[in-house]
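One such given next:
>
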Amino acid sequence: MKKLTGLLVLLLFLTGCHTKTSKKNTDQSTKNPLHVLVLTERGGQHGGFTNAGLQWLEKESKSLNFQFTEINNTDSINEAWLSRFGLIIQLDYPPYMWTPEAEKAFIRYIDEGLGSWIGFHHATLLGEFDGYPMWQWFSELMGDIRFENYIAPLADGTVYVEDKEHPVMKGLNESFVIPDDEWYTFNKNPRPNVHVLASVDESSYQPASEIKMGDHPAVWTNPSKKARNVYFLMGHSAKLYENEPFLQMFRNAIRWGLKMDKK
Protein backbone atom coordinates (compact mmCIF):
# COMPACT_ATOMS: atom_id res chain seq x y z
CA MET A 1 0.00 0.00 0.00
CA LYS A 2 2.81 2.39 0.91
CA LYS A 3 4.55 1.54 -2.37
CA LEU A 4 1.34 2.29 -4.34
CA THR A 5 0.82 5.61 -2.53
CA GLY A 6 4.39 6.61 -3.27
CA LEU A 7 3.90 5.88 -6.97
CA LEU A 8 0.73 7.99 -7.05
CA VAL A 9 2.52 10.92 -5.40
CA LEU A 10 5.37 10.62 -7.91
CA LEU A 11 2.92 10.53 -10.86
CA LEU A 12 1.06 13.59 -9.59
CA PHE A 13 4.33 15.46 -9.15
CA LEU A 14 5.51 14.61 -12.67
CA THR A 15 2.12 15.57 -14.18
CA GLY A 16 2.19 18.90 -12.39
CA CYS A 17 5.66 19.64 -13.71
CA HIS A 18 4.65 18.78 -17.30
CA THR A 19 1.59 21.02 -17.18
CA LYS A 20 3.58 23.95 -15.88
CA THR A 21 6.26 23.54 -18.56
CA SER A 22 3.67 23.32 -21.36
CA LYS A 23 1.94 26.48 -20.15
CA LYS A 24 5.24 28.31 -20.03
CA ASN A 25 6.05 27.32 -23.62
CA THR A 26 2.58 28.40 -24.81
CA ASP A 27 2.91 31.76 -23.09
CA GLN A 28 6.27 32.37 -24.75
CA SER A 29 5.00 31.53 -28.24
CA THR A 30 1.89 33.74 -28.07
CA LYS A 31 3.07 36.58 -25.86
CA ASN A 32 1.04 39.71 -26.65
CA PRO A 33 0.65 39.06 -30.38
CA LEU A 34 -0.28 42.12 -32.45
CA HIS A 35 -3.18 41.56 -34.80
CA VAL A 36 -3.26 42.82 -38.39
CA LEU A 37 -6.18 42.64 -40.82
CA VAL A 38 -5.13 42.12 -44.45
CA LEU A 39 -7.82 42.97 -47.00
CA THR A 40 -6.77 41.37 -50.28
CA GLU A 41 -7.68 41.30 -53.92
CA ARG A 42 -7.20 37.73 -55.13
CA GLY A 43 -6.75 36.82 -58.78
CA GLY A 44 -6.82 39.19 -61.73
CA GLN A 45 -3.97 41.45 -62.74
CA HIS A 46 -2.98 42.16 -59.12
CA GLY A 47 -3.10 38.52 -58.03
CA GLY A 48 0.67 38.06 -58.31
CA PHE A 49 1.37 41.07 -56.11
CA THR A 50 -1.16 39.90 -53.52
CA ASN A 51 0.10 36.31 -53.42
CA ALA A 52 3.72 37.40 -53.07
CA GLY A 53 2.66 39.90 -50.40
CA LEU A 54 0.95 37.23 -48.31
CA GLN A 55 4.03 35.00 -48.50
CA TRP A 56 6.22 37.91 -47.40
CA LEU A 57 3.85 38.82 -44.58
CA GLU A 58 3.95 35.22 -43.35
CA LYS A 59 7.71 35.54 -42.83
CA GLU A 60 7.59 39.09 -41.48
CA SER A 61 4.88 38.22 -38.97
CA LYS A 62 7.26 35.75 -37.34
CA SER A 63 10.14 38.22 -37.39
CA LEU A 64 8.13 41.15 -35.99
CA ASN A 65 5.86 39.06 -33.74
CA PHE A 66 2.44 39.90 -35.14
CA GLN A 67 -0.46 37.80 -36.38
CA PHE A 68 -2.59 38.55 -39.42
CA THR A 69 -6.02 37.60 -40.70
CA GLU A 70 -6.75 37.73 -44.43
CA ILE A 71 -10.18 38.51 -45.89
CA ASN A 72 -11.21 38.96 -49.55
CA ASN A 73 -14.36 41.02 -48.97
CA THR A 74 -15.75 43.34 -46.31
CA ASP A 75 -18.77 41.23 -45.27
CA SER A 76 -17.31 40.43 -41.84
CA ILE A 77 -16.28 44.02 -41.02
CA ASN A 78 -18.19 45.85 -38.31
CA GLU A 79 -17.08 48.08 -35.44
CA ALA A 80 -16.82 45.27 -32.87
CA TRP A 81 -14.89 42.94 -35.18
CA LEU A 82 -12.54 45.68 -36.38
CA SER A 83 -11.61 46.53 -32.79
CA ARG A 84 -9.55 43.30 -32.69
CA PHE A 85 -6.97 44.75 -35.07
CA GLY A 86 -4.23 47.31 -34.48
CA LEU A 87 -3.52 47.69 -38.20
CA ILE A 88 -5.36 47.25 -41.50
CA ILE A 89 -3.38 46.54 -44.67
CA GLN A 90 -5.40 47.16 -47.81
CA LEU A 91 -3.38 44.96 -50.15
CA ASP A 92 -4.70 46.22 -53.49
CA TYR A 93 -8.36 45.90 -52.50
CA PRO A 94 -10.28 48.75 -54.22
CA PRO A 95 -12.15 51.61 -52.47
CA TYR A 96 -15.56 50.24 -53.41
CA MET A 97 -17.49 46.96 -52.92
CA TRP A 98 -17.55 47.75 -49.18
CA THR A 99 -20.76 47.03 -47.29
CA PRO A 100 -22.41 50.07 -45.64
CA GLU A 101 -21.61 48.62 -42.21
CA ALA A 102 -17.96 48.09 -43.17
CA GLU A 103 -17.71 51.68 -44.47
CA LYS A 104 -19.12 53.04 -41.22
CA ALA A 105 -16.74 50.92 -39.11
CA PHE A 106 -13.70 51.87 -41.19
CA ILE A 107 -14.51 55.60 -41.06
CA ARG A 108 -14.71 55.46 -37.27
CA TYR A 109 -11.53 53.37 -37.10
CA ILE A 110 -9.59 56.02 -39.04
CA ASP A 111 -11.26 59.21 -37.81
CA GLU A 112 -11.04 58.23 -34.14
CA GLY A 113 -7.58 56.66 -34.37
CA LEU A 114 -8.67 53.20 -33.26
CA GLY A 115 -5.87 51.63 -35.27
CA SER A 116 -3.58 52.26 -38.26
CA TRP A 117 -3.87 51.75 -42.01
CA ILE A 118 -1.54 50.93 -44.93
CA GLY A 119 -2.93 51.06 -48.46
CA PHE A 120 -1.44 50.01 -51.80
CA HIS A 121 -2.00 50.95 -55.41
CA HIS A 122 -5.56 49.82 -56.18
CA ALA A 123 -6.85 51.55 -53.02
CA THR A 124 -6.96 54.79 -55.07
CA LEU A 125 -9.09 53.44 -57.91
CA LEU A 126 -11.50 56.21 -56.99
CA GLY A 127 -14.46 56.90 -59.23
CA GLU A 128 -17.51 55.04 -60.51
CA PHE A 129 -16.44 51.44 -61.22
CA ASP A 130 -18.30 48.15 -61.65
CA GLY A 131 -21.61 49.86 -60.91
CA TYR A 132 -20.45 51.33 -57.58
CA PRO A 133 -20.42 55.06 -56.78
CA MET A 134 -17.27 56.78 -55.61
CA TRP A 135 -16.78 56.71 -51.85
CA GLN A 136 -16.33 60.42 -51.17
CA TRP A 137 -14.91 60.00 -47.66
CA PHE A 138 -12.22 57.65 -49.01
CA SER A 139 -11.39 60.15 -51.75
CA GLU A 140 -10.86 62.81 -49.08
CA LEU A 141 -8.69 60.44 -47.05
CA MET A 142 -6.48 60.10 -50.14
CA GLY A 143 -6.27 63.85 -50.71
CA ASP A 144 -9.62 64.61 -52.40
CA ILE A 145 -8.60 62.87 -55.63
CA ARG A 146 -10.24 60.83 -58.38
CA PHE A 147 -8.51 58.21 -60.54
CA GLU A 148 -7.79 59.44 -64.05
CA ASN A 149 -5.33 57.20 -65.93
CA TYR A 150 -2.49 54.70 -65.63
CA ILE A 151 0.55 53.44 -67.51
CA ALA A 152 -0.79 50.22 -69.03
CA PRO A 153 2.54 48.92 -70.47
CA LEU A 154 4.11 49.24 -66.97
CA ALA A 155 7.34 51.12 -66.33
CA ASP A 156 10.30 51.35 -63.98
CA GLY A 157 10.39 54.70 -62.17
CA THR A 158 12.85 56.52 -59.92
CA VAL A 159 11.34 57.54 -56.59
CA TYR A 160 12.77 60.44 -54.53
CA VAL A 161 12.38 60.61 -50.77
CA GLU A 162 10.95 63.96 -49.64
CA ASP A 163 10.69 63.39 -45.87
CA LYS A 164 13.69 61.31 -44.82
CA GLU A 165 12.83 61.84 -41.13
CA HIS A 166 9.49 60.06 -41.36
CA PRO A 167 9.56 56.52 -39.86
CA VAL A 168 8.25 54.98 -43.11
CA MET A 169 11.31 56.33 -44.96
CA LYS A 170 13.84 55.10 -42.38
CA GLY A 171 17.00 53.54 -43.85
CA LEU A 172 16.23 54.44 -47.48
CA ASN A 173 18.54 56.17 -49.92
CA GLU A 174 17.55 59.58 -51.30
CA SER A 175 16.35 57.87 -54.48
CA PHE A 176 15.65 54.33 -55.66
CA VAL A 177 14.03 52.55 -58.60
CA ILE A 178 10.65 50.85 -58.34
CA PRO A 179 10.29 48.24 -61.11
CA ASP A 180 7.51 47.41 -63.52
CA ASP A 181 4.64 49.39 -62.04
CA GLU A 182 1.32 50.74 -63.28
CA TRP A 183 1.72 54.35 -62.14
CA TYR A 184 -1.69 55.93 -61.55
CA THR A 185 -2.54 59.53 -62.35
CA PHE A 186 -5.36 61.54 -60.78
CA ASN A 187 -7.64 64.43 -61.64
CA LYS A 188 -5.54 66.65 -59.38
CA ASN A 189 -2.47 66.56 -57.19
CA PRO A 190 -3.18 65.29 -53.64
CA ARG A 191 -0.21 67.25 -52.26
CA PRO A 192 -2.18 70.23 -50.85
CA ASN A 193 -4.30 67.87 -48.72
CA VAL A 194 -1.73 65.27 -47.62
CA HIS A 195 1.87 65.02 -46.42
CA VAL A 196 4.03 63.62 -49.23
CA LEU A 197 6.84 61.27 -48.16
CA ALA A 198 8.15 60.43 -51.65
CA SER A 199 7.42 61.22 -55.28
CA VAL A 200 8.19 59.59 -58.62
CA ASP A 201 10.20 61.33 -61.35
CA GLU A 202 8.08 60.88 -64.47
CA SER A 203 11.06 61.66 -66.74
CA SER A 204 12.73 58.51 -65.40
CA TYR A 205 10.06 56.10 -66.68
CA GLN A 206 11.48 53.15 -68.60
CA PRO A 207 9.96 52.72 -71.08
CA ALA A 208 9.02 56.39 -71.43
CA SER A 209 5.34 57.32 -71.18
CA GLU A 210 3.23 60.25 -72.30
CA ILE A 211 0.85 59.66 -69.38
CA LYS A 212 2.03 62.14 -66.73
CA MET A 213 0.82 64.31 -63.87
CA GLY A 214 3.79 66.66 -63.49
CA ASP A 215 4.44 66.71 -59.75
CA HIS A 216 3.62 63.09 -58.91
CA PRO A 217 3.43 61.99 -55.23
CA ALA A 218 4.09 58.27 -54.77
CA VAL A 219 3.92 57.77 -50.98
CA TRP A 220 1.87 59.95 -48.66
CA THR A 221 0.04 60.18 -45.37
CA ASN A 222 -2.99 62.22 -44.28
CA PRO A 223 -2.09 63.89 -40.97
CA SER A 224 -5.60 65.30 -40.53
CA LYS A 225 -6.74 61.82 -39.45
CA LYS A 226 -6.14 60.50 -35.93
CA ALA A 227 -5.13 57.08 -37.25
CA ARG A 228 -1.61 56.56 -38.52
CA ASN A 229 -2.04 56.03 -42.25
CA VAL A 230 0.19 55.71 -45.31
CA TYR A 231 -0.58 55.07 -48.96
CA PHE A 232 1.81 53.58 -51.56
CA LEU A 233 1.08 54.34 -55.21
CA MET A 234 3.05 51.26 -56.23
CA GLY A 235 1.67 47.74 -55.88
CA HIS A 236 1.06 46.13 -59.26
CA SER A 237 3.78 43.54 -59.76
CA ALA A 238 5.14 40.62 -57.72
CA LYS A 239 8.60 41.93 -58.67
CA LEU A 240 8.23 44.47 -55.86
CA TYR A 241 8.95 41.71 -53.35
CA GLU A 242 12.40 41.37 -54.89
CA ASN A 243 12.99 45.11 -54.48
CA GLU A 244 14.71 45.98 -51.19
CA PRO A 245 13.61 49.67 -51.03
CA PHE A 246 9.97 48.62 -51.40
CA LEU A 247 10.33 45.94 -48.73
CA GLN A 248 12.04 48.41 -46.41
CA MET A 249 9.15 50.87 -46.78
CA PHE A 250 6.57 48.14 -46.23
CA ARG A 251 8.40 46.85 -43.15
CA ASN A 252 8.80 50.38 -41.80
CA ALA A 253 5.09 51.06 -42.35
CA ILE A 254 4.12 47.97 -40.38
CA ARG A 255 6.42 48.89 -37.51
CA TRP A 256 5.06 52.46 -37.50
CA GLY A 257 1.45 51.33 -37.80
CA LEU A 258 1.79 48.88 -34.92
CA LYS A 259 3.71 51.48 -32.90
CA MET A 260 6.74 49.26 -32.46
CA ASP A 261 9.08 52.25 -32.50
CA LYS A 262 9.14 55.25 -30.18
CA LYS A 263 8.29 57.78 -32.89
